[in-house]
Amino acid sequence: MHRYKILIADDHAMVRDGVKNLVRQSKEYVVIGEASNGRQAIEQFETLAPDLLILDISMPELNGMEVAREVLNKNPLANIIILSMYDDEEYVSRCLEIGVKGYVVKNESGSELEYAIRSVLQGKNYFSRQAQDVIFKKYSHAVTKKKQREELIRLTPREVEIIRLIAEGLTSQQMADKLFISPRTVETHRANLMKKVGVKNAIELVKKVQQLELI
């Protein structure tokens, strides 16, 4: 019977023991190593080649995110679950960006870690309920901000066309020919757009519109 090899990295022996006891409840898994600091975690990962690394964020020498980044740079397909006491947006978002497959907050039930281990070893991602709440709140906040920007600055279809042509580097005459309007009308649109968006020139206009994701 194939057994998945698991490496545990946490600077607290009690936490490592708790994770080991949880993992040993299943015959599918075997703990092949433990690390108490970040540097040791990287060395053991390279030596033992585990199927899964369960990794704490706060550790001596190198923190969990530094370890995850270094491991994933060398092994892009590595399976890493972050087991952390932190559930704020900064930590969860940074771990997502690094490419970890799972994130579980330490004050959650052991079943969350069980689900995470099973899911990640099946090739899926798993973020526990508290981590999902953080991700959802961030996404919801971003959507709300985007809607507020769109309500504050509404562009007409013609204005969108003008901005895109400005971004392509066309002159007012070239835009006029392409849109079958007069150069004076193009200039009027350009002036109105700069006033609406709150910029002083065409370069700033294109940049600001892109930043605000208005087109």
TrEMBL record:
Residues modified as 4-aspartylphosphate: 56
Pfam families: GerE, Response_reg
Domain of life: Bacteria
Gene Ontology annotations of biological process type: phosphorelay signal transduction system; regulation of DNA-templated transcription
UniProt keyword annotation of Lyase present: no
Domain Response regulatory positions: 5-121
Keyword Transcription: yes
Every HTH luxR-type domain range: 148-213
Identification of the protein by name: Response regulator transcription factor
Assigned keywords, A-Z: DNA-binding, Phosphoprotein, Transcription, Transcription regulation
GO molecular function, one term: DNA binding
Residues of the signal peptide: none
